[in-house]
Design goal:
The structure is a single chain. The chain has 138 residues and is mainly α. It is built from six helices and two strands. A two-stranded antiparallel sheet has the order 1-2. Helix 1 packs across helix 3, helix 1 runs antiparallel to helix 5 and helix 4 packs across helix 5. The radius of gyration is 17 Å and the shape is globular. The chain starts with 16 loop residues before the first helix and ends in a 5-residue tail after the last helix.
């Protein structure tokens, strides 16, 4: 992982979206951390996501935020859509939440969605639904 910025999970109010997703999906698949690491192997056979990083992520310890290759490898290893992994990483490391239209075809990104009022969330959902139903250019 190449970025030098670290996420401090021990900070009060820290977000754990990716940590929770990895932990839950790993349990669902009955995989060890070593098995997840092995499943992230690239074309060269080397793991893209290392055991130590996964271990720290699940324990809520500081980790270097993942980049696209790591997110792709995690999605592959955990057998889930890349968008789901990206949404969880964006929420945990950047405080950006994904908001989907009712059908799941349109997505918007909102910073710190938990601070929105219920009315603001409803307005955002209606806006997404409006985009979804509007004619698309050919």
């Amino acid at each position: 992982m190449t970025t030098m910025v670290e996420q401090d999970e021990a900070t009060p109010g820290a977000r754990t979206h990716l940590s929770d997703l990895v932990k839950q999906r790993r349990a669902d698949l009955r995989l060890s951390l070593r098995a997840v690491e092995a499943r992230t192997a690239g074309e060269d056979g080397q793991p893209v996501v290392k055991y130590g990083w996964l271990h720290r992520l699940e324990r809520g310890e500081p980790v270097i935020p993942p980049q696209v290759p790591e997110l792709e490898a995690l999605a592959r290893a955990l057998e889930i859509p890349l968008g789901r992994v990206q949404d969880a990483a964006g929420a945990q490391f950047l405080g950006i939440d994904a908001v989907w239209s009712e059908s799941g075809e349109v997505r918007a990104l909102a910073r710190r969605l938990e601070k929105y009022t219920p009315q603001q969330r409803e307005q955002l959902a209606r806006l997404l639904d409006a985009f979804e139903s509007s004619p698309r250019p050919e």
